[in-house]
Amino acid sequence: KQDGVLVYLRMPLAELDKRLGDLNQRGVVLEPGQTLAALYEKRTPLYEQWADVTVNLSGLNHDESVEKILKSLNDNKSAAT
């Protein structure tokens, strides 16, 4: 947090699962026997706790996501000054 803004890119599990595809190819690290759902359940509260900015990306394509992230960062920067 000292070095920058922590951004949580929120997305429903079903959409995240669909976007990720093959977890091994994407480099998602799971504990032995752990599912994506279990990892999601474990990490979501941490992301929500520590994020400076949360951006809901549900239903957005790549370009829309980038636009929304940039707007959220700009809004956060304006609010901080």
Structure, explained:
- It is a single chain.
- The chain is mainly alpha-helical.
- Helices cover 57% and strands 10% of the residues.
- It has four helices and two strands.
- The chain has helices at 13-20, 23-26, 36-50, 62-80, and strands spanning 7-10, 53-56.
- Strands 1-2 form a two-stranded parallel ribbon.
- The chain is globular and about 45 Å long.
Label the structural class: mainly alpha
CA-based shape = globular
Largest sheet: 2 strands, parallel
**In which range does the helix fraction lie?**
55-70%
Instruction: Work out the oligomeric state of the chains in this entry.
Output: single chain
Beta strand %: 5-15%
What topology, given as strand order, has the largest sheet?
A: 1-2
Write the element-wise H/E pattern from the N-terminal end onward: EHHHEH
How many β-strand stretches? 2
Question: Total number of helical segments?
Answer: 4
Write the layout of secondary structure elements.
Layout: E1 7-10, H1 13-20, H2 23-26, H3 36-50, E2 53-56, H4 62-80
Parallel strand pairs: 1-2
